[in-house]
Structure to design on (101 residues):
C-alpha cells in the first residue's frame, strides 16, 4: 500500500521479538531479508545491504550454501547492486544465485 514507514515499524518489532525468542533462526533471516527488500524499495541502499548481509549469514549457517533461500538473498543483492549502478558486482551475485537453482 506504499506505507513504507509503517511496514518498517512492524518488521522491526517482529525482528526484536524473534531475536529474543529464537536467536539466530531462519525466521529471523526471513525478517531481515524482508527489511532489506523494504529498504531497497525506499532507496536506502546501505541499510538494505546490511540487512541482506545479516540474512545471508544466517541462511548460510542454518541452510547451507545450496539452499534456495540463499539464492533468493543473492538475487536481491544482485538487484541492489544493479540499482546502485554496480553492474559487474550485480552480475556476480546473479551468477552465484543461478548456480544454486
Amino acid at each position: 500500500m506504499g506505507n513504507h514507514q509503517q511496514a518498517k515499524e512492524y518488521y522491526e518489532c517482529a525482528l526484536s521479538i524473534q531475536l529474543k525468542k529464537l536467536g539466530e533462526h531462519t525466521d529471523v533471516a526471513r525478517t531481515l531479508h524482508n527489511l532489506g527488500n523494504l529498504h531497497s524499495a525506499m532507496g536506502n541502499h546501505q541499510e538494505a545491504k546490511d540487512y541482506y548481509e545479516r540474512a545471508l549469514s544466517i541462511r548460510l549457517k542454518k541452510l547451507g550454501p545450496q539452499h534456495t533461500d540463499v539464492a533468493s538473498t543473492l538475487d536481491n543483492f544482485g538487484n541492489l547492486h544493479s540499482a546502485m549502478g554496480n553492474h559487474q558486482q550485480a552480475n556476480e551475485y546473479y551468477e552465484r544465485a543461478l548456480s544454486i537453482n
